[in-house]
Design a protein that fits this description.
5-stranded mixed sheet, globular, Fumarylacetoacetate hydrolase, domain 2, alpha+beta, 18% helix, single chain, 312 residues
Length: 312
């Protein structure tokens, strides 16, 4: 039996088959809620349920926190980017926690952004302090990963690519929708991580659909690498990469080789002229739906529904 937790502006709730029950806790942050496991467990049996639809849900990961993300971490995505999945390095980038938004909040595109992309990702919520230099082994993983969440790593490609950096292009407010469910893991459930299916639709069209078994570097490898240089704390969030199906797709190899011979300004001008004609980038009013669950429904992180809104 799983522990699917929901969050509203004033409370935490345990989602049950008969509705949602308020958790009797004083926790105001995700870290505090994870530390009050007894209160979460008590809500399985106690309390008066209310319809989940009546709750104004917000991100179950509270900010501020560290938000770290893995790059090119699905074999299908690496192949689509003309990369060899067996040679992709284990690499990370940071996102501002101010980019976290709720599972039903609008994704707001800044006026200067032209190529807005999406990336469904499994988010791992940290459950304990991990000081720099910590040597992690397999048995440490269940205590390190406390919960799973649905995330969408929204990206401004026209800001990311020519600057060869990620922080700005992925850190605008609303560029990390999270939730609705904080799926607190119980014994043995993390072992089913590869069975999670990641799906993303735009206006009803299925764009991404892949199992997490397509991942290149799993949670243990990621945390071992992170612990060499990055302190982590309870409530921090690690995004684990996205599968094939994003709007951005690498050009064929011959065209890529020709482009490498051009001056950078010319290359990027040609690239963005072509990308501007790509209808898969998010447009004003688009509906983005994201879900992550095992095919049997035993682990279900819930579904996001976010609308895209352009600022003028």
């Amino acid at each position: 039996m799983t522990l699917p937790v929901l969050r509203t502006p004033d409370a935490w709730w345990l989602q049950r088959a008969d509705g949602a029950v308020r958790i009797a806790t004083d926790a105001t942050t995700t870290a505090e809620l994870l530390a009050d496991r007894a209160a979460v467990l008590a809500a399985r049996e106690d309390g008066d349920p209310v319809p989940v639809a009546d709750l104004a849900l917000i991100s179950p990961v509270s900010a501020p926190c560290r938000v770290v993300a893995q790059m090119a971490n699905y074999a299908s995505h690496a192949t689509d980017a003309n990369m060899d999945p067996t040679a992709v390095p284990l690499a990370f980038f940071r996102k501002a926690s101010g980019s976290i938004s709720g599972p039903y909040d609008d994704i707001v595109r800044p006026a200067h952004v032209t190529l807005l992309d999406y990336e469904v990702e499994v988010g791992l919520v940290i459950g304990r302090e991990v000081p720099v230099g910590t040597e992690l082994v397999e048995s440490d993983l269940p205590g390190t990963v406390a919960a799973l969440v649905v995330t969408n790593d929204v990206s401004a490609r026209d800001q990311q690519l020519p600057k060869t950096q990620f922080y700005e292009s992925k850190s605008y407010p609303t560029f990390t929708p999270v939730g609705p469910v904080l799926l607190i893991l119980e014994e043995g459930e993390l072992a089913r991580f590869p069975e999670l299916r990641l799906r993303l639709w735009v206006n009803g069209e299925l764009r991404q659909d892949e199992l997490a078994s397509d991942i290149i570097y799993g949670p243990l490898e990621a945390f071992r690498a992170l612990a060499r240089f990055q302190q982590l704390a309870s409530g921090d969030l690690l995004l684990t990469g996205t599968p094939v199906g994003t709007a951005l797709s690498a050009p064929p190899k011959p065209i890529e080789m020709i482009g490498s011979l051009l001056p950078p300004a010319t290359k990027w001008r040609i690239f963005f002229t072509k990308q501007a004609k790509n209808p898969r980038y998010l447009q004003d009013g688009d509906l983005v739906e994201v879900s992550i669950a095992t095919d049997d429904g035993a682990l279900d992180l819930g579904s996001q529904r976010t609308s895209v809104r352009w600022t003028s």
